[in-house]
Amino acid sequence: xxxxxxxxxxxxxxxxxxxxxxxxxxxxxxxxxxxxxxxxxxxxxxxxxxxxxxxxxxxxxxxxxxxxxxxxxxxxxxxxxxxxxxxxxxxxxxxxxxxxxxxxxxxxxxxxxxxxxxxxxxxxxxxxxxxxxxxxxxxxxxxxxxxxxxxxxxxxxxxxxxxxxxxxxxxxxxxxxxxxxxxxxxxxxxxxxxxxxxxxxxxxxxxxxxxxxxxxxxxxxxxxxxxxxxxxxxxxxxxxxxxxxxxxxxxxxxxxxxxxxxxxxxxxxxxxxxxxxxxxxxxxxxxxxxxxxxxxxxxxxxxxxxxxxxxxxxxxxxxxxxxxxxxxxxxxxxxx
Length: 336
Description:
4 strands; 3% strand; single chain; disordered N terminus; Cytochrome Bc1 Complex, Chain D, domain 2; mainly alpha; 2 domains; two-stranded antiparallel ribbon
C-alpha cells in the first residue's frame, strides 16, 4: 500500500480573507471573473505547423503518443483519467491539466516549473514516462520528412530544424485554444436571461463563500499557487509535492497551481491526483478543505449548475493531414 501524505493545514484566516475579497469586489461593483477574449496576434504559419506537431505521434518513441493523447481536444483538452498513460503503458505521476485556455496561466504544469507554453511543450517529448523520446531523436525524425522540412523552412526561414522551432510552433498553436462565448460570458456582458435562477444563485454562493479568492480572472483560476488543504489536511497517496519540488522551499510543499474552471464540466476527474470524479464531489471537498464550509445538497447543486455555465466554444477545425514518412525516417519502437 502506498503511504498517505498529509497536506499542511493553514489557519481559517484564509477563509475570512476570501470572504473579504468577495465583499470588496461586490462593493466595488466589479465581477471577479471577466469574459474570455478571442486570441490575437497569432502567427498563422507557426500555428498551422504547431497543429500538425501537436497531433503527430512520431514525436514519441512508440510512434503512438502525441500531445493530443493526454490533452485530447475532443475531451476538453485532457484525457479524463486520474493520471496520464505514458510510454509502454506507464502510469503518469499526476493528472493531465487541460490545454484549453492554458495561455492564460501564470505558468505551466501543476507545479509551475515551465514559465510558458514554449517551455512546457518540450517536456513531455523527452520524459521517459510520457512520450519516451529525446529532443535530438524527435528533430531527426522531422528532418527525414520532406513535408516538414519544407514547412519549417517556409515558417522560420531556416534550413535546419531545431527543437526551439518545434516548441515555438506547438506553443503558437496552443495559444489559439481559448474557449470564449460561454453562457456565463454572455451573462457578464449583460444578457440577464441566459442564466437560470439556480445558476445565478450558484454564482452568488461561489462569490460569498470565497471561491473567487483563487478562482478569478479570465480563466477563473490559473493565476496563483495555493496550498491543497488550507483549513483541513488533504490525504492522498499521490507523491507529488507541488511547488517545493521546484523552489526547494518547504513552505511551498503541496502548493499547486490553481486550475482553471473554464470548461470544468468536461475536465474530470479533478485535482492534481484526479481523486474527485464528479463536480459534486469536488465542490464538497474544496468547500471543506479550502474554506472550512460544508455546502448543503442544494447549495452544492447550485454551484455545480453555475460551473457548467463556464463551458465555452470548443476548438473546431479540420484535423491536420500529416506529411508522410520516408524510407529514411526512423521506425517507431512501441514495445521496447
